[in-house]
Amino acid sequence: MYDIGIIGGGTAGMTAAIYGQRAGKQTIIFEGSVFGGQITSSPNVENYPGIASVSGTEFSMNLLDQAMKLGTETVTEQVTGIRDEDGIKIIETTEKEYPCRSIIIATGVTHRHLGVPNEERLTGAGVSYCATCDGAFFRGRDVAVVGGGSTALQDAEFLSNYCRKVYLIHRRDEFRGEEQIVSRLREKENVEFILSATVREIIGDTAVERLILNSKKTGKEFKLEVSGVFIAVGQIPQNEIFADVVKLDGNGFILAAEDCVTSHPGIFAAGDCRTKEVRQLTTAAADGAVAALAACKYIAGEI
Residue 53 is part of which domain span? Predict the structure, then answer.
């Protein structure tokens, strides 16, 4: 019997394990693929307080090493579901079942990709899914943002403070995001809208050099010289298997506020997988700490 079963080995999950172990609880982390989550694809992390610069992989491995030295167990198995038997939470995997007194879901999200040639190969070499993480690396250079929602608009506004030129590419004639941000972007001299266009290909040998775009109105292709492309076409939570246990919002995120408490007693949600406004390393770590301490209170009968 484990005190805290943690589903997901990203920043939130591993931070939860550290706080759980330090509180004297036996924790176990379940990760179906790579420990560290999405941050492992970032060549440089420079926005985490107290760490001037570190690779995403090194950051993640340091977290994992810290958690394991404290006594956290790790399991590389795919979680297939959760069930509750008289207050005992059972984590089901492809291999076996694990009884736990409490559970923290920290499955994160995956960024929706464009699915165009060279996108995967150049991820981390000019292709990014996080403007606030990587924008500063493109100071004084020309970049593109792809998307039409509020995230894309916010990314373009953020990048306009660093970059010489920001192209905002959207496949429709109008943006879906907040009109106030659109109005502010229209007033910026270094922001240009490219509407009714899609990205057909990303070009570059070792780093992004240009984009091949297609005009939906004329059907013609044209080139756009940029050093970076920030893709903001949505995030995909991976919470479907928990839908019969905890409540999700319309986009599939677990309904949980800053206290990380879900609709099911003894089950908590931490990091990008829950409903929240800001999704960063710092907020993931904060959630992990909050969720772990909440799980300790639940085990003690205090909540």
Answer: 2-110+235-299
